[in-house]
Amino acid sequence: PTIVQLGIYINSFYAISEQTMDFSLNLYLRQQWRDNRLQYDKKDNNGQDKLKLGDGMWDRLWTPDVFFRNEKKAAFHVVTTPNRLLNLHSNGTVWYVSKITATLSCPMRLHKYPLDTQDCPMMFESFGYTMEHIIYKWLPSPVQREKGLELPQFRLVDHSLNDCSQNYTTGAYPCLEVRFILKRDIGYYMIQLYVPTVLIVILSWVAFWISIDAIPARVTIGLLTVLTMTTQSTGARTQLPRVSYIKAIDVWMVVCLIFVFASLLEFAVVNVFSRKEIRQTRRSSFRKRTMPRDEEIALEQVSISCDCHRLLTSQN
């Protein structure tokens, strides 16, 4: 079998999407293999070991049929000229480089979102040649990247190399895989999510220091904070796919909403007990006002009964 060595040079990472669960990158795909039919004598090339082949030779030579197994879409760069390089060495070794922009699927686990780390694969597989004809191996230093490469919301922490060869009904096909370890940066979410929700919760607690008689002010603060927190929660969910499991951001938003709702509920409870206490106070004050009058009536009745008793005694 022909040994084909693979390697990549990453120009840029961009468009890492949680909604569509994919990522896009721009890279140089490097391939190297040896074809003994292409050996030549250095003397025929002015003693040079390397011969650069022109554009017309690309379609006349055999090249591996490598493709991205987890590809959603990909394209070669052709502006202003096809971005391909083909070098031939005297021993028949072919060095083939092409510039590609690819969008690849990345099944994401969002349980810890936005404090998550994603593991996104890039799989190179032969489309038509089985392992009886081709064997894939990595080049020395197979994964290189542009110096100062930055991602919008992630950091490229590390990568790992694996063999992903798989058996199909038509045979066993060679496959190599590089997995990118991407850690999400928390800065954006601190500014857009965590800090605003904390401030909303603190604002809802301001109602505790407002007089209980200021019902419009306390109700307004409670309702506004509840509605604002609901809007924040809805906005956070619109950036994510509709997964069935609970995410860390869901727990945070629910806890904040509970605190905000509890402050509104506290006002309702305090208002009920306050009105109950007012009614009891009024009843007790009413009783205190009516008790002297009742005592006067009782004394008058006693006095009348005593006078009647004396009158009857004198008549007898």
TrEMBL record:
The lineage of its organism: Eukaryota, Metazoa, Spiralia, Lophotrochozoa, Annelida. Gene3D superfamilies: Neurotransmitter-gated ion-channel ligand-binding domain, Neurotransmitter-gated ion-channel transmembrane domain. This is Gamma-aminobutyric acid receptor subunit beta. Belongs to the ligand-gated ion channel (TC 1.A.9) family. Gamma-aminobutyric acid receptor (TC 1.A.9.5) subfamily. It comes from the Eukaryota. PANTHER family: NEUROTRANSMITTER GATED ION CHANNEL. One of its GO terms (molecular function) is extracellular ligand-gated monoatomic ion channel activity. Keywords: Cell membrane, Chloride, Chloride channel, Disulfide bond, Glycoprotein, Ion channel, Ion transport, Ligand-gated ion channel, Membrane, Postsynaptic cell membrane, Receptor, Signal, Synapse, Transmembrane, Transmembrane helix, Transport. Residues 193-288 form the Neurotransmitter-gated ion-channel transmembrane domain. The chain crosses the membrane at residues 186-210, 251-273. It is found in: Postsynaptic cell membrane. It holds the Pfam family Neur_chan_memb. Its main location: membrane. It is a multi-pass membrane protein. GO terms for cellular component: chloride channel complex; postsynaptic membrane. InterPro entries: GABAA/Glycine_rcpt, Neur_chan_lig-bd, Neur_chan_lig-bd_sf, Neur_channel, Neuro-gated_channel_TM_sf, Neuro_actylchol_rec, Neurotrans-gated_channel_TM, Neurotransmitter_ion_chnl_CS. Residues 1-185 form the Neurotransmitter-gated ion-channel ligand-binding domain.
